[in-house]
Recover the amino acids of this structure.
C-alpha cells in the first residue's frame, strides 16, 4: 500500500496562526479538547495500517485545539493512505473567506448527517487521529481535576475524525479537522457526559474506506468504546495549562472521591 507523510507540524502551526489572525477565526470550546501522542503510538498505528517510512513527530503531552495534529487518511486518488498534518478546529468549506468563523474542535456523532458544517465531510472526508491517551476534567472541591483515559493494553487510541479544506483571503486554503464525540461509556460518564468516538482496528479501516458514503453504514461505527478495555487515572493539574507540554502532565495524583479512594478509577467491571 502506498504511504506518504505530508507537511511539517512546526510549519503548519506557524501557518495556521497567521491564517487564523487574517481570517478572523475564533475557537469553540471543545468537549474532547486535550490529548497525548507519544511517537511510539504513532509508529504503532503506522505499522497496523501498513504505512512505512520515517515518522516526523516528537512526543506531545498536551495537544490542544488550534495546533497541527497528525492524521491518517486516504491519499489523493484513493490509492493508499497517508499521514498529514491538519489544524485541529474544523472550518466549513462554505465559510466565506475573510469572514468571522468558528473553528469546531468537536462534532457530535448523532448529528453529523444533518449539520451543514459536517455532512459532506462525513460522507467523503474522514480520517483518523492516533492518541496515547486523552484528558477530561471533573470539578471537585472548587477546582478542576484532570483525568487521563487510556486503553488497558497500551494500544493506540484511534479517534474518528472529519477534515475540510478551509478557504482563506489569499484564495487558497488550509486543511482543518474535528474530533467526533459520542455518548460516554460506563467509565467515561463518571467524569464527563461525552467521549471521543474511538474506533477498533477493523472499524478504523472501514472508516477510511472511500467506498462507504451512506451515513447509515458509517453511524454504527461511532458507538461508545468498551469501558472494560479502558483505564482512567487522576493526573497532575499541570496539564490544565496548555503551555505545559512535558511528562509532568502524566504524573498520577490521589483523587479521594474516585470510587475506591485511589488514583485509579474503579468500576467493579
Amino acid at each position: 500500500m502506498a504511504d506518504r507523510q505530508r507537511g511539517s507540524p512546526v510549519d503548519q502551526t506557524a501557518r495556521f496562526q497567521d491564517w487564523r489572525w487574517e481570517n478572523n477565526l475564533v475557537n469553540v470550546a471543545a468537549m474532547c479538547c486535550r490529548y497525548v501522542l507519544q511517537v511510539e503510538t504513532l509508529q504503532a498505528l503506522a505499522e497496523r495500517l501498513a504505512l512505512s517510512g520515517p515518522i516526523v513527530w516528537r512526543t506531545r503531552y498536551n495537544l490542544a485545539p488550534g495546533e497541527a495534529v497528525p492524521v491518517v487518511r486516504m491519499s489523493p486518488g484513493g490509492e493508499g493512505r497517508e499521514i498529514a498534518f491538519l489544524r485541529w478546529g474544523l472550518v466549513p468549506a462554505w465559510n466565506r473567506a475573510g469572514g468571522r468563523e468558528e473553528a469546531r474542535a468537536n462534532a457530535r456523532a448523532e448529528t453529523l448527517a444533518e449539520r451543514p458544517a459536517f455532512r459532506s465531510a462525513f460522507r467523503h472526508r474522514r480520517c483518523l487521529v492516533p492518541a496515547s491517551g486523552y484528558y477530561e476534567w471533573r470539578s471537585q472541591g472548587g477546582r478542576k481535576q484532570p483525568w487521563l483515559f487510556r486503553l488497558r493494553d497500551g494500544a493506540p487510541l484511534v479517534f474518528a475524525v472529519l477534515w475540510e479544506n478551509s478557504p482563506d483571503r489569499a484564495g487558497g486554503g488550509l486543511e482543518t479537522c474535528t474530533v467526533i464525540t459520542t455518548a460516554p461509556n460506563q467509565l467515561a460518564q463518571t467524569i464527563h457526559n461525552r467521549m471521543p468516538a474511538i474506533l477498533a482496528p477493523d472499524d478504523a479501516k472501514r472508516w477510511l474506506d472511500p467506498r462507504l458514503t451512506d451515513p447509515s453504514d458509517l453511524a454504527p461505527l461511532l458507538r461508545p468504546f468498551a469501558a472494560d478495555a479502558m483505564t482512567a487515572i487522576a493526573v497532575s493539574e499541570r496539564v490544565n495549562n496548555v503551555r505545559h507540554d512535558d511528562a509532568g502532565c502524566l504524573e498520577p495524583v490521589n483523587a479521594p472521591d474516585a470510587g475506591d479512594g485511589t488514583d485509579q478509577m474503579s468500576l467493579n467491571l
